[in-house]
């Protein structure tokens, strides 16, 4: 039996290869997240509102129909909050 094959016939080299590839991708993701953080710090240093930039990124990921629906609902909800409440109805005695 080969040294790279365990008792159930799974190639150890193949498992190692997959694990190492995943580890490499995880490290790349970590590096990219750090780069993203640095970009936001740069934007903040230039006086930009990072929260708003993140909202723009979120909206840009939506297709136009979803974005329109989001904006419409946001407008409706804001108007509903600002609308005067109806007067309470009198209770019959």
Write the layout of secondary structure elements.
Layout: H1 12-45, H2 50-60, H3 64-82
Q: Give the low-confidence spans.
A: none
Write down the overall geometry: elongated
Q: What about the largest sheet?
A: none
Number of strands: 0
Order of helices and strands: HHH
Q: Count of helical segments?
A: 3
Domain unit count: 2
Report strand %: under 5%
Ends: how far apart?
A: 92 Å
Structural class: mainly alpha
Q: Could you report the average pLDDT, rounded to the nearest whole number? A: 88
User: How large, in whole angstroms, is the Cα Rg?
Assistant: 27 Å
- State the share of residues found in helices, binned by percent: 55-70%
Detailed description of the structure:
By secondary structure, this protein is mainly alpha-helical. It is elongated, with a radius of gyration of 27 Å. It contains three helices and no strands. The chain folds into two domains: 47 residues; 34 residues.
Task: Give a concise summary.
This protein is an all-alpha fold and 93 residues long. The chain contains three helices and no strands.
What features would you highlight for this structure?
mainly alpha; single chain; 2 domains; 3 helices; elongated; 93 residues
């Amino acid at each position: 039996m080969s040294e790279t094959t365990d008792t159930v016939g799974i190639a150890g080299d193949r498992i190692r290869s997959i694990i190492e590839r995943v580890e490499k991708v995880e490290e790349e993701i970590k590096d990219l997240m750090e780069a993203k953080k640095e970009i936001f710090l740069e934007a903040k240093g230039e006086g930009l509102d990072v929260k708003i930039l993140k909202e723009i990124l979120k909206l840009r990921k939506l297709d136009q129909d979803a974005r329109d629906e989001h904006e419409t609902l946001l407008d409706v909800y804001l108007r509903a909050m600002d609308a005067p409440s109806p007067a309470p109805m009198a209770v019959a005695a």
